[in-house]
Write a structure and sequence with these properties.
InterPro entries (chain B): DmsC
Helix content of chain B: over 70%
Order of helices and strands of chain A: EHEEHEEHEEHHEHEE
CATH class of chain B: Mainly Alpha
Oligomer: heterodimer
Largest interface: A-B, 42 and 31 residues
CATH architecture of chain B: Up-down Bundle
Strand content of chain A: 25-35%
Pfam family, one (chain B): DmsC
GO biological process, one term (chain B): anaerobic electron transport chain
Structural class of chain B: mainly alpha
Number of helices of chain B: 9
Number of domains of chain A: 1
Protein name (chain B): Dimethyl sulfoxide reductase subunit C
GO molecular function (chain B): dimethyl sulfoxide reductase activity
Shape of chain A: globular
CATH topology of chain B: Formate dehydrogenase/DMSO reductase fold
Number of helices of chain A: 6
Chain lengths: ~210, ~300
């Protein structure tokens, strides 16, 4: 059994197609308004001037970040949950037990990745469990299996970090020191640091 | 002004008012006992004491409306080791149980006055720790508008401001009921003289306390807003924008200054020699204005929720 699973996203080649998002929604049959995996589009830009030529050139950027739960080392959702429904289990996967959850939505308030999501019909929280059922059968999680660009991967986080570095501090993601996400990002060539504040999320209604 | 978190607005306000009232009653009791016999002091404070329990129970009941799945209610005490929400609920229930035990002893005159006072002191301390724990729930590192020292200070200020003015209002209402009953039964009004003197000095103290706590609120509010303005993160900027939208902040300030400042000062002046009716109107309207101001303030507190990240 794995020690701690995590995701690796090669942001350079992500086209923002949202196949991962749709595969997740389909696999788990998620209701309207509940989207465990979301693809954030982050855009910004500035002008550079060339005094010699008397010209202005636009520098614009847009890049995508596919995010679900990062099964953090310091999961803030687990820390604030009053019922212990939110827990870190085998393989380091953070999941929620609907039989314990009281639906107070405190985890939803706290998680900076919007991973725990409220199901209004069931009255309880739901979240990504890294497709534990698929893993048990030896298959990839639905999102990873669906990625046509093959930029979304999962695996033992120590291996992913050894191979692809240890960056998760890319805007608009929060400072990784808060929850220590098990997430590795190979940054887009225009990726901005976490606190740069130079761009905006252009699809907030999808997040 | 959207009121999506109405159950939590009511829960936090009513529990804080209950704790504040209990503490204010305790202070009145301790100060009044220096000059008056216990029986007289009890006549003034008991009616207000019995009003606190139902408010506290109503607040706990309203908080259930916040839950999506109340069936699992008993699980909320599972995570006392790390969740402030678990700790808040435990302390809130402890305050309610201790307060109920004290009120019952006071009503039936069980135990000695000294033991009862000790129970009341423990209840007051548990109540204040409960309010402090309530504030800790909102100190979430990913929510800049909440994760600041102003949250516990503002919660405690609300506790004392609403508490002392609620006790003032309860005193004047109970006094007018008592006077009407005494007149109907043909009792001598002189018998009430001691209670009346105590009522007046209590109202003076309540007026001064309200002004002092209002001053704290007026210092904390700009500190909070400037902290958000200087934070620079998109979440803090969104919170500041939510707080300044629609003139609610101004309404809250005007009502708080009118109720907790102008009317409280007037209450302090009028308590010395003013007619009972004047005191009833002043203490009553000061409480109502501050209650509305605090409600607007608390709705705005929940409106200022904005999280960092995505």
């Amino acid at each position: 059994m794995a020690q701690q699973l995590g995701f690796w996203i090669d942001q350079q080649y992500c086209t923002g197609c949202k196949a991962c998002q749709v595969a997740c929604k389909d696999k788990h049959d998620l209701p309207l308004g509940v989207t465990w995996r979301r693809v954030v589009e982050y855009s910004g830009g500035s002008w550079s001037t060339d005094p010699a030529a008397g010209t202005f050139a636009p520098n614009v950027f847009t890049y995508y970040t596919s995010i679900s739960c990062n099964h953090c080392d310091d999961p803030i959702c687990v820390a604030v949950c009053p019922t212990t429904a939110m827990h870190k289990g085998a393989d380091g996967i953070v999941s929620v037990d609907p039989a314990k959850c009281v639906g107070c939505r405190f985890c939803e308030w706290a998680c900076p990745y919007s991973a725990p999501q409220f199901d209004p019909t069931a009255g309880v929280m739901t979240k990504c469990d890294l497709c534990a059922d698929e893993l048990a059968e030896g298959r990839d999680p639905a999102c990873v299996a669906a990625c046509p660009s093959r930029v979304l991967h999962y695996g033992e986080i120590a291996d992913l970090r050894a191979e692809h570095g240890d960056r998760a501090d890319v805007a608009p993601l929060p400072d990784p020191s808060i929850t220590r996400p098990n997430l590795v990002i190979t940054p887009h060539r225009h990726a901005e640091p976490t606190d740069a504040g130079t761009g905006t999320i252009t699809n907030p209604e999808e997040i | 002004m959207p009121v999506g978190e109405l159950p939590l607005v009511l829960f936090t306000l009513l529990t804080q008012m209950s704790v504040g009232s209990f503490v204010a009653l305790g202070a009145v009791h301790v100060l009044a006992r220096r000059r008056y016999p216990a029986a007289t002091v009890d006549r003034l404070s008991d009616p207000a004491l019995y009003a606190i329990g139902p408010v506290m129970v109503a607040a706990l009941a309203v908080s259930l409306l916040h839950l999506g799945n109340p069936v699992n209610l008993l699980n909320v005490l599972n995570n006392l080791g790390s969740s402030w929400l678990s700790r808040e609920i435990l302390l809130g229930c402890a305050f309610t149980a201790l307060g109920a035990a004290f009120a019952l002893c006071q009503w039936r005159r069980w135990l000695t006055p000294g033991v009862r006072q000790a129970v009341a002191a423990v209840t007051a301390v548990v109540g204040l720790v409960f309010v402090w724990a309530s504030a800790q729930v909102y100190l979430i590192p990913t929510v800049p508008a909440w994760d600041t020292w102003t949250t516990p200070v503002a919660f405690l200020a609300t506790t004392f401001l609403l508490g002392c003015l609620a006790v003032g209002a309860a005193f004047v209402v109970a006094a007018s009921v008592r006077t009407r009953r005494a007149a109907a039964q043909g009792a001598r009004p002189e018998a009430e003289a001691e209670v009346d003197a105590m009522l007046r000095s209590s109202l003076r103290g309540i007026g001064l306390t309200a002004i002092a706590v209002l001053a704290v609120e007026l210092l904390v509010l700009p500190a909070w807003l400037l902290g958000l303005a200087n934070d620079g993160s998109p979440a803090a900027t969104a919170a500041a924008a939510a707080l300044t939208a629609g003139g609610w902040l101004h309404l809250r300030l005007v009502l708080a200054v009118l109720g907790g400042g102008v009317l409280a000062l007037f209450l302090y002046r009028a308590a010395a020699a003013g007619g009972r009716r004047l005191l009833l109107v002043t203490a009553g309207s000061a409480f109502v204005l501050v209650l509305v101001a605090e409600t607007v303030g608390r709705v705005q507190f929940f409106e200022s929720y904005a999280r960092i990240g995505i």
